[in-house]
Amino acid sequence: MLRLRRPSFNLAACAQAVRAVLADPDKRRLTDPLWQSTEVVRSLPSRLVRIEGWRTLEFGIVTERFKAPAVVVSPRDSLVVRVRLKSVDGTRVRLVQRSVDAPALAVPRGYVRLRLACGGYQIRAVAPDRCTTVYVNALDPNGYVPKPVVRTTMPDRAMTVAKAAQAAERHRKTGKWR
């Protein structure tokens, strides 16, 4: 049986600000330099997702596009089903997504569609200026990516949560998202 350990990060940052950095397309560039765009292809009724102890905030099909990390690699596109949840006590927010097949939604010219086995995060407020965050991203790039490119891009991916916390802290100090 495969066991995936999900590291939990204790952050000196407001949970709401960390969520804003991770979820808001206008702020996504702060944590992912390869991100180009996010588009909600179809919103689905939130009543279709029922999980005890959680309220469904968003449910739908989403596509995202990412720049190529190097000239020898094609840019990537993803098509996922996404659900965003909030705990009924209001202390936690989760975003969960997984690739879906939709033959009617063609891969954009020049892109390769990656396969996201599981991706998402949970942010839990533990104090007004502190939170814990769990972040998971397991994907198949759907094609060969040279090892030097992987070695260059993977450390950046691993720093997503730290970058979100840094952006939230900068926002707290300056009032600006940059």
Q: What's the SSE blueprint?
A:
Elements: E1 8-11, H1 15-23, E2 35-43, E3 54-66, E4 76-87, E5 92-99, E6 112-113, E7 115-127, E8 130-140, H2 147-158, H3 160-174
Parallel strand pairs: 4-6
Antiparallel strand pairs: 1-8, 2-3, 3-4, 4-5, 5-7, 7-8
Helix pairs in contact: 1-3
Give me the number of helical elements: 3
Helix content range of the residues, please?
10-25%
Total DSSP E strands: 8
Q: In percent, how much strand structure appears in the residues?
A: 35-45%
Could you say what the CATH topology is called? Alpha-D-Glucose-1,6-Bisphosphate, Chain A, domain 4
Architecture (CATH level 2) name: 2-Layer Sandwich
Could you say which overall geometry the principal axes of the C-alpha atoms support? Answer: globular
CATH superfamily: START domain
Give the ordered list of helices and strands: EHEEEEEEEHH
Mean pLDDT rating: 87
